[in-house]
Design a protein that fits this description.
- The longest helix has 10 residues.
- Helices cover about 20% and strands about 20% of the residues.
- The protein is built from two helices and four strands, in the order βαββαβ.
- A hairpin with a 5-residue loop joins strand 2 and strand 3.
- A two-stranded antiparallel sheet has the order 1-4.
- By secondary structure, it is α+β, with helices and mostly antiparallel strands.
Length: about 70
Amino acid sequence: MSAGVRVSTDRDRCIGAGLCVLTAPDVFEHDDDGLVTLLEPEPPAEREQDVRLAHQLCPARALTVDPAGPEPA
């Protein structure tokens, strides 16, 4: 089973386009200022495809997606 991904956001880069929220609404949302807020820094493996798509679609490149660490034994 895949360990999924680790996600981080750069709110200074965010322009509020909203593609991340539309693509993975259980991982990202917008705050009152319209900027990205991260709901799930290590989403489950089944959300990985949506998170990677959100990363690709972000026009400001405000999302970072890295492999998650190994699952505890």
